[in-house]
């Protein structure tokens, strides 16, 4: 069965996501992306500003979503996405109501859906690298 195509907001989003997974060494069996970290990092790397703002709260031993939400000024839509990332990561005390997705623009709604797929499925780094190659060829 083939994996569903994962939406990325840009090529830079894809590159930041893959680099973050590798830097934090969140792979098991050599190439499978940790599903909790994968879903969270997918959202946290959505754009350069967000990733730069949250990096100090992200480590191999966890992600401090409580501090991200306390210390970083986020738009309403990005706050919804960060709460979703926290919930998918396993921080069940940070509530994310799915009806809040309705305020997201189409791109960020697609990000929310893709994060759910990443959390649900097991992806290998190769799945994304193949996706990067095929999509970059199609863009040219």
Helicity level, as a percent range?
A: 55-70%
Could you give a short account of the major beta sheet? 2 strands, antiparallel
H/E topology pattern: HEEHHEEHHHH
User: How many individual domains?
Assistant: 1
Indicate the overall shape. globular
- Total strand segments: 4
Rounded mean pLDDT score? 89
Structural class determined from secondary elements: mainly alpha
Share of residues in strands: 5-15%
Uncertain stretches of 5 or more adjacent residues: 132-140
Describe the fold and architecture.
- This protein has one domain.
- 58% of the residues lie in helices and 6% in strands.
- The protein has helices at residues 11-23, 35-44, 48-54, 65-71, 76-89, 106-120, 125-139; strands at residues 27-28, 32-33, 58-59, 62-63.
- Strands 1-2 form a two-stranded antiparallel ribbon. A two-stranded antiparallel ribbon has the order 3-4.
- It is globular.
- The two termini are 28 Å apart.
- Mean pLDDT is 89; it is low at 132-140.
């Amino acid at each position: 069965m083939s994996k569903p195509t994962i939406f990325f907001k840009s090529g830079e989003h894809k590159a930041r996501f893959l680099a973050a997974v590798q830097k934090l060494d969140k792979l098991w069996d050599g190439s499978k992306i940790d599903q909790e970290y994968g879903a969270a990092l997918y959202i946290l790397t959505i754009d350069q500003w967000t990733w730069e703002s949250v990096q100090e709260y992200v480590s191999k031993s966890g992600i401090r979503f409580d501090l991200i939400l306390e210390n970083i000024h986020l738009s309403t839509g990005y706050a919804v996405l960060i709460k979703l990332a926290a919930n998918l990561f396993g921080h069940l005390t940070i509530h994310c109501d799915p009806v809040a997705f309705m305020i997201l623009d189409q791109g960020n709604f697609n990000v929310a859906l893709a994060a759910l797929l990443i959390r649900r499925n097991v992806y290998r780094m190769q799945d994304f690298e193949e996706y990067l190659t095929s999509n970059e060829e199609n863009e040219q």
